[in-house]
Structure prediction request, 532 residues.
Amino acid sequence: MSQRFVNWFKFASPASFYPLAGKAWPWFAALAAAFCAAGLWLSFFVAPTDFQQGEGYRIIFIHVPASWMSMFIYCVMAFWAAIGITFNTRLSGMMSSALAPTGALFAFISLWTGALWGKPMWGAWWVWDARLTSELILFFLYVGYIALTAAIDDPRRADKAGAIVALVGVVNVPIIYFSVKWWNTLHQGASVSLTKAPSMATTMLWGMLIMALAFWMYSIAVALYRVRAIILERERHTTWVAELPEMQQ
Amino acid sequence: MNWGSTSEFFAMGGYGLYVWGSFGVTAAALLIETLLVRKRFSDTRRTLRRELAADRDSQDQS
Amino acid sequence: MSAFIAIVRRDLLLAARRKSEVFTALFFFMIVVSLFPLGIGPETALLRRIAPGVLWVAALLAAMLSLNRLFAADHQDGTLEQMALSPTPLALLVSGKVLAHWLTAGLPLVLLAPVLGLQFDLSARALGVLMLSLLLGTPLLSLIGAIGAALTLGLRGGGVLLSLLVLPLYIPALIFGAGAVEADMAGLGAGGHLSLLGALLALGVFFAPWAATAALRIALE
Prediction:
């Protein structure tokens, strides 16, 4: 029991996590590529044409997984934030800040593909649909987090302040989603929903799930790669960095 | 198989602009992010290497 | 409790010495609200429809203007450090400061809103609901704003950053606040909206001072 406990905290130190992340990221990148290939094949060649939306519905194969990922990554960020606040570990703050840009990117992709889906289906690039609106607000939350952590020079303070923003944000996300939904029903929003409209065939569901896995693995790979860069930036004056094999000429 | 020909595949039943606009921008965004992250890492590594080499030189001289 | 009252009194006294700041925010509120008819046109039916949203958005912005100064002065002269070291829990003192902020920045908006609502030809009943929704909503704005103000304390570009952090979190208050007036004007009754706003306020009173305190401690390190 105590053995396991020690092992967990061993990887919480940047010095031991750095080589681990270096070994792990290529595997996640390979998994991402494999899932991506499978997902694209499913979404273009296996999934049948939707009788209502034609071929345009194929956008949901990236739209829905991207929305899932943007929400999931925010939760993971908040998880690391909570760990960082309770255990005061340096690595968790680095993980949060490594995840934020990827999460913001997925929120952006979700909005972009939502607009491209909306134009042919609703006849407008933007409709104040509850899901799209919540996604937009989530994007703002990411931007706020990134802007705040970028404005603070001391990385430790940036991590802690970012952790509070992430936690306050994650408490607010359900409230915001609920309020936007309430607002939307009051104003009678769009009747066609992005996810409900196509009669969800099993192949479509599989396509979305596999694309979601691809995005997930991609996010892990990129976050690990980014956290390595962050570790190097922050630990530049330590001896373990100087002794790394890639630092020798 | 859904598609009779390549041109049919790219036309996406008239939704080509929207479907390829979505998939294309997603692919580009993920690719650009990967490149930026790689650049950030290799830039940091390069400056650190240079700093360390400078440290070693000054130590050798003294 | 006496420390709480003392800090509310002290902040109110300080605000009374700098009346111009309070009035600037109020005039900002008036000007923003008056700009909308000029931009949209004087059609009464349209103005009546947009009034709740316009008044609420303007109130959000006006309440945000003064957030910057919530902790800044105390931070500069070192009072904040003294507060953090004092035996009274910091969260209690923060709550006192938030209450004082609401009394100087939120309550005047509540009192001014019906006058501005007349410009938009709102009925007396709608004005009453508007006041009630602002009465429940503006304390929430001060509470959430305190978290943002504590996080951006002493940062360059703090003001813009503060709005970026805080405005997305204001959205539920905006939706339920403006929605209450709209629902009442549509004859649906504002009770649901107002009670949800009240629930959010209760949550805010409970959690926001705590989060703001944590943020302040980080800024003071």
Remarks:
- The interface with chain C takes residues 85, 137, 140-141, 143-144, 147-148, 151-152, 157, 160-161, 164-165, 167-169, 171-172, 175-176, 178-180, 182-183, 186 of chain A (CB under 8 Å).
- The two ends of chain A are 42 Å apart (CA to CA).
- The mean pLDDT of chain A is 85.
- Residues 18 and 105 of chain A are 24 Å apart (CA to CA).
